[in-house]
Amino acid sequence: MNARNDLLLDKLELRAPLPSDGHQLNQLVAASPPLDTNSVYCNLLQCLHFADTSVAAVLDGRLVGFISAYCPPNEPETLFVWQVVVAEPMRGSGLAKRMLHWLIQQPGTEQALGLATTITPNNRASWALFESFAQDCDALPVKSVLFQRDRHFAGQHDDEYLLRIAPLPNRPDKSMATHLDDLRSSLRTPGSRRWLD
Fold first, then answer.
1. 160-166 and 114-119 as β-strands: parallel, antiparallel, unpaired?
2. CA-to-CA distance for 106 and 101, rounded, in angstroms?
3. How far is Cα 63 from Cα 20, in angstroms, rounded to an integer?
4. Going by C-beta distance under 8 Å and a sequence separation of 6 or more, which residues neighbour residue 24?
5. Do 146 and 160 meet the contact criterion of CB atoms below 8 Å apart?
6. Distance of CA 113 to CAs 167, 171, 190, 192, Å?
7. Of the candidates 175, 163, 46, 65, the residue with the CA atom closest to the CA atom of residue 110
8. CA 67/CA 86 separation, integer angstroms
9. pTM of the entire structure?
10. Is the dihedral of CA 79, 84, 168, 146 positive or negative?
11. Which residue stretches of the chain have pLDDT < 70?
12. pLDDT (tens digit, 9 = 90+) per residue, 4-26?
């Protein structure tokens, strides 16, 4: 990281999203291909309904990074990261990983023992981000195919791999036992394997 990025990160504010961030989030995602865009209304709801499990990065009053995440109703001990976006001038600064670490330390995510996300096979930046995050957490990442190009996307979108990282740091002792149970279960599922192979 260069000195300019160090100075920028010193001025950066990480906080829970506000509904007023929704439009800026929509514009940030639209300017960050190949991320899937959503409607402004969807982004407003993300900033409102998932504020406790998401993070906004603001620099000089502008949104420069965002992680939208939530705990699925059927997996309340998992933090599912829906999307990570960083503005082009901030890429390579470590902002995405900084947002992930900030997020897992917030009260709204303290029940999450593990983290999950989906990544397309060729998204090298995301694989590198989550590999580095897993190493920081001294956690075991496991991947499996979740959505298939032809079966789920009618050939219009790449496969999406489900990546699970657990245990998260500073969680109760039961987190490792829970994670090992999840790992055993996922390894019995066809197509699951240790990441990275």
1. antiparallel
2. 9
3. 11
4. 62, 63
5. yes
6. 6, 6, 24, 20
7. 175
8. 9
9. 0.82
10. positive
11. 1-9, 146-158, 173-197
12. 555 566 789 999 999 999 999 99
